[in-house]
Amino acid sequence: MLRRTITILLGIALLPFCIGFSWQLAVTAVDITYKPLISYWFTGGVLLDLIIHFLFKQPILSYVVGHELTHAFFAILFGGSVKAFHASEKGGRVHLTKSNFVITLAPYFFPLYTFFALIAIWLARTANAPALEPWLVLVAGAAFAFHIVLTAIFLQTDQNDIREHGAFFSYPLIFLFNVVLTALLIRLLLAQDMSYPAYLIDGIMRSINLIALGIAKLYGWIAQ
Question: What predicted TM-score, i.e. pTM, was given to this entire model?
Answer without folding.
Answer: 0.91
